[in-house]
Write a structure and sequence with these properties.
heterodimer, A: 235 residues, alpha/beta, Rossmann fold, eight-stranded mixed beta sheet, 9 strands, 26% helix, B: alpha+beta, six-stranded antiparallel beta sheet, four-stranded antiparallel beta sheet, elongated
Chain lengths: 235, 451
């Protein structure tokens, strides 16, 4: 047995990767719907069977819109179930539907505190769940580690939203993304991935509500908007 | 100590604990066991002397042969808390005698029946003492001796009853039995051997009732989607009403594992006001079980995964509460708060409601303005400074206005939104947050986040 073949064999393993290239994922990822992002992710998309940590700096920068194409694809094409756990706001059904999500395959669970991680673990164990989106603002590192192990045993996508302040803390997630808004674009910082580090932020053109016909030709002044309202109730 | 008088038994074993025989409870236990046995066969027969006959000829293939089935029945009985003396025979009377005689081999054919029966003592027949003495005077001490005697003479001396019984036991005469009628509704109770103070410790005892329920459901050929547990508390000076725990399932089921899991989750959160002495389980009329169609090729489809999803849904609902897990649906309404609805998640119903023509995505895009992915439960008032709405600094209006108004028709209804008059804008904050805000007569409000 020559040592070179052994090394080659070791390099074949999916959990071993070279520092100058992206790791090969055991399963092909789910395309994110954004080619720029797909190119930078091991497996060419959101990893199946792995925890993806999303750290949005602010709300409303397009953090959910980033996931929407993949979620729509899973629910429509793969007939997989989507589970949303402990969302901080109401998920607005008409917008999800407009984004292509099959609402008959969506489950929303409001789970306080530690129940959220529990619900997440149970959902990972269920057959037929394609993606889980969970908001865990105060999760312990041990729970996160358990979720990562549970995710590895399943084929579902697991997205965990945490506050941006957690970016400096270590995390067991194999993929960590910090999200920031800049005008019409969402800037993705790849904090961690399997493979070479990506120091440059990625601008992603997520769907923003501007491209619709209701866009203003010029910024409306609040005064004119106020004037357009009737001052009295309809008699 | 069977067959001895109490004084005699006490003399032999002074520490003997004596309990009065509770015939009613015995009968109730026998009925519960009969329900449980419905899981093996629908032909069950309750006899006096705490005996249960199962006609299993039709079940042999399903349960993997006579020996396997016999083993399963005995093991299941033990799980139900009974130590049966069981026997397997081609005729009911022979099975009865073999069981009393303690012959519990798991196989028996009609040919070897005379040999097997012959080994039994005459006491298994439970004859009148005079008859037994007469038989002894003929020199007959075991069933083998009895079977050797000429039947005609036996009938003349001891009456036709014994001879008919022998013929029935050997399968020469038919032996029809009265079937146990499975009750219309399931309602069983279990007295606990000791008081239980921890709710989570009730699971093992409740499992017996669940198994009995599943047997009953199998015999009735259906499933249930809800059942009710009642935990009866210690009777005494301060009699408390029983604690009631209703379990709901996502679809009709008769899977004992699934029921136990849901019960386990609920028990973990149940607070008992007093120790529990008895458990009751009630279930309504069984509903038809949904059929499954298995796919020819292995693929991720609607079949098996939906069943697993139903299990997930039950567990989540059991722990988080029924209202905490739901699905969403959109409604053809112009007022944003009314354009969606929480609906019960139902993975098992499987029937996808066709999207109404008003909700076709293509139409939505052209007909209405942008809608945010996240909606605030209540519009949040925003300050206005120098004519501009503020949310962590002045907001820049990017798109709008989209006028949404009217709704007078439900203004009188409680909890309804009523008449609205709002101009919606897409706004961006200084920190690049995309927000959905509106202006109404009361001022500026934040209503959604383009997450």
């Amino acid at each position: 047995m020559s040592s070179s073949t052994t090394l080659a064999q070791i390099l074949e393993r999916p959990d071993v990767w070279r520092g100058d290239a992206l790791a090969r994922a055991a399963l092909p990822g789910v395309p994110t719907g954004f080619a720029d992002l797909d190119r930078e992710l091991p497996g060419g998309g959101w990893p199946r069977g792995g925890l993806t940590e999303l750290l949005p700096l602010r709300r409303g920068v397009g953090e959910l819109s980033l996931l929407l194409p993949a979620l729509a694809r899973l629910s429509r094409d793969e007939l997989a179930w989507l589970v949303c756990i402990a969302p901080p706001y109401l998920l607005y059904a008409p917008a999800l539907q407009a984004g292509g999500v099959d609402l008959s395959r969506l489950l929303v669970a409001s789970a306080p505190g530690r129940d959220a991680a529990w619900a997440c673990e149970r959902s990972l164990a269920a057959d037929g769940v394609g993606a889980i989106v969970v908001w865990l603002p105060e999760v312990q590192a041990t729970s996160l580690r358990r979720l990562q192990l549970a995710a590895e045993a399943s084929q579902a996508l697991l997205f965990v939203f945490r506050p941006a302040a957690c970016a400096s803390q270590p995390s067991p997630a194999p993929l960590r993304l910090a999200l920031e808004g800049e005008g019409e674009q969402l800037i993705v910082h790849l904090l961690k991935r399997r493979g070479s580090a990506q120091p440059l932020p990625l601008p992603i053109a997520v769907q923003r509500p501007l491209c619709l016909r209701h866009a203003l030709a010029r910024p409306a002044s609040a005064l004119s908007a106020a004037r357009s309202l009737p001052r009295t109730a309809v008699a | 100590m069977a067959g001895r008088r109490l004084a005699e038994a006490r003399a032999l074993l002074p520490a003997l604990a004596v309990r009065e025989r509770a015939v009613e409870r015995e009968q109730a236990a026998l009925k519960r066991l009969a329900c449980w046995a419905g899981g093996f066969t629908s032909e069950v027969c309750c006899l006096a002397q705490s005996m249960l006959l199962l006609e299993v000829a039709a079940s042999l293939r399903l349960f993997g042969g006579a020996a396997k089935l016999f083993e399963d029945v005995v093991a299941g009985c033990a799980k139900q808390g009974h130590l049966p003396r069981a026997a397997l025979a081609p005729t009911p009377l022979a099975a009865q005698w073999l069981a009393i005689g303690g012959d519990d081999r798991g196989s028996c054919t009609l040919d070897e029946l005379p040999h097997r029966l012959g080994a039994l003592p005459l006491s298994v027949l439970a004859l009148a003492s005079g008859d037994e003495a007469r038989l002894a005077s003929f020199g007959a001490r075991s069933l083998a001796d009895l079977l050797r005697l000429p039947r005609a003479g036996l009938a003349r001396r001891l009456g036709t009853g014994l001879v008919t019984d022998l013929a029935r036991a050997l399968g020469e005469l038919p032996d029809p039995r009265q079937r146990f009628v499975f009750p219309e509704l399931f309602a069983e109770r279990l007295e606990l051997p000791m008081r239980v103070e921890q709710a989570s410790a009730l699971g093992w005892a409740a499992r017996r009732l669940i198994d009995a329920l599943c047997g009953w459901l199998a015999a009735r050929g259906g499933g249930i989607s809800e059942c009710v547990f009642e935990f009866g508390h210690e009777s005494g000076a301060r009699q408390r009403p029983a604690t009631v725990l209703a379990l709901g399932f996502a679809g009709a089921t008769r899977d004992a594992e699934r029921m136990s899991r849901v019960l386990g989750e609920r028990l973990q959160r149940l607070h008992l006001p007093a120790p529990v002495e008895r458990i009751g389980l009630r279930a309504g009329a069984p509903a038809a079980l949904a059929g499954h169609s298995r796919s020819l090729f292995v693929e991720r489809g609607e079949g098996a995964s939906d069943e697993s999803m139903a299990g997930l849904l039950e567990r989540l609902q059991a722990r988080l509460g029924d209202d905490s897990v739901h699905a969403l649906s959109s409604v053809a309404e112009h007022r944003p708060e009314n354009a969606w609805r929480r609906v019960a998640a139902a993975p098992l119903t499987g029937e996808k409601s066709p999207p109404s023509p008003f909700l076709a995505p293509a139409l939505r895009h052209s007909a209405v303005g942008p809608r945010p992915l996240c909606l605030l439960a209540q519009p949040q008032a925003l300050r206005e400074l120098a004519g501009r709405p503020q949310c962590g600094g002045p907001l820049r209006l990017l798109a709008g206005p989209e006028r949404i108004e009217s709704g007078w028709w439900d203004a009188a209804e409680p909890d309804a939104l009523g008449d609205v008059c709002r101009d919606y804008f897409v706004a961006i904050s200084r920190r690049d947050e995309w927000l959905w805000i509106f202006r109404s007569r009361a001022g500026w409000f934040l209503h959604g986040v383009f997450a």
